[in-house]
């Protein structure tokens, strides 16, 4: 079955599928820089990040054919619908983009992202592979495929693709593959290497919420409370607070014995995110997770 035919079938049936949790969708989106809404999944604190304006699989172009322009517009629309969780319309927009321009690699990259979110591993794999066949050195596509590998139990291989993305000296957002490599290194149990990746990501982009959250958690586990507090405080003051960010800051203040700050953060967490996993941990007095 062709990609286009598969998209058409999925677009017809996607509305019947149960929507995946919002935070899971945002976690997948992280690899591409799609706008995030500040939530994290269990065991993956790195899923909290700042808002990004658009999916980075959409390249900028100063010279393009009319065919490519039309495909790009469809891809931009697909990205917006994806961010809203409207997979049916996103798939339809991608189908139209590829009908207009069958060689448009970023559309296949976004298609891989959508299928990944829908749990269709085979089609996601096929889409990413087609994208990379068309543009093997594209840093965003290598970063995205690396994230897919990391999410499907192939963490060690994912590092290879993050490093490919980093080889492009003109890549404007190298902090993304760096923090993704950090996440995957943690999953491999290599905390030392993960720390290096996160520190490089933060050095390149001091506003990188993923790096700050992970570094704060890492140093808190080591009881390096001054460094943990540096990243936690910077995170909650740089962005609108999220449940994971508030929980990190609260745990740091708890470890420091600063009860006034701890109480203030606890109040914020309960008020802003009463049903969150973090609020549940707070109510249970579990400051280890």
Output the keywords.
single chain; 289 residues; mainly alpha; 15 helices
- What's the count of strands? 0
* Helix content range: 55-70%
SSE series:
HHHHHHHHHHHHHHH
Global outline = elongated
Structural class based on helices, strands and sheet pairing: mainly alpha
Head-to-tail CA distance between termini:
45 Å
Mean pLDDT: 84
Task: Indicate the radius of gyration in whole angstroms.
Answer: 20 Å
Strand content: under 5%
Low-confidence stretches: 1-57
Largest β-sheet summary? none
| Discrete helix count | 15
Write the layout of secondary structure elements.
Elements (H helix, E strand, L loop, with lengths): L2 H11 L8 H9 L35 H18 L3 H14 L4 H14 L2 H14 L4 H13 L3 H12 L8 H13 L3 H14 L4 H13 L3 H14 L4 H14 L2 H14 L4 H8 L5
Helix pairs in contact: 1-4, 3-4, 3-5, 4-5, 5-6, 5-7, 6-7, 7-8, 7-9, 8-9, 9-10, 10-11, 11-12, 11-13, 12-13, 13-14
Question: Any overview of this molecule?
Answer:
With 289 residues, the protein is mainly alpha-helical. It has 15 helices and no strands. It has helices spanning 3-13, 22-30, 66-83, 87-100, 105-118, 121-134, 139-151, 155-166, 175-187, 191-204, 209-221, 225-238, 243-256, 259-272, 277-284. Helix 5 (105-118) runs antiparallel to helix 6 (121-134), helix 10 (191-204) runs antiparallel to helix 11 (209-221) and helix 11 packs antiparallel against helix 12. The termini are far apart. 49% of the residues are buried.
């Amino acid at each position: 079955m062709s990609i286009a035919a598969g998209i058409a079938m999925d677009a017809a049936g996607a509305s019947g599928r149960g929507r995946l949790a919002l935070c899971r969708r945002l976690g997948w989106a992280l690899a591409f820089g799609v706008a995030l809404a500040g939530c994290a999944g269990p065991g993956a604190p790195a899923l909290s990040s700042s808002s990004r304006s658009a999916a980075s699989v959409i390249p900028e172009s100063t010279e393009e054919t009319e065919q490519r322009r039309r495909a790009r517009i469809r891809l931009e629309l697909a990205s917006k619908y994806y961010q809203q969780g409207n997979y049916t319309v996103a798939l339809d927009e991608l189908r139209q983009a590829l009908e207009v321009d069958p060689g448009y690699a970023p559309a296949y990259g976004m298609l891989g992202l959508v299928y990944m979110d829908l749990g269709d591993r085979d089609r996601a794999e096929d889409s990413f592979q087609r994208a990379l066949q068309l543009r093997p050195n594209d840093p965003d596509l290598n970063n995205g495929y690396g994230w897919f590998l990391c999410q499907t139990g192939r963490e060690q291989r994912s590092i290879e693709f993050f490093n490919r993305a980093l080889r492009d000296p003109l890549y404007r957002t190298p902090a993304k593959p760096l923090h993704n490599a950090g996440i995957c290194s943690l999953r491999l149990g290599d905390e030392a290497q993960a720390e290096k990746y996160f520190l490089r990501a933060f050095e390149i982009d001091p506003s990188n919420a993923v790096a700050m959250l992970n570094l704060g958690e890492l140093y808190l586990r080591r009881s390096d409370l001054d460094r943990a507090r540096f990243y936690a405080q910077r995170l909650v003051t740089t962005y609108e607070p999220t449940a994971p960010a508030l929980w990190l800051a609260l745990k740091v203040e708890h470890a420091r014995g600063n009860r006034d700050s701890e109480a203030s953060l606890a109040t914020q967490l309960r008020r802003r995110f009463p049903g969150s996993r973090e609020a549940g941990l707070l109510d249970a007095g579990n400051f280890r997770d």
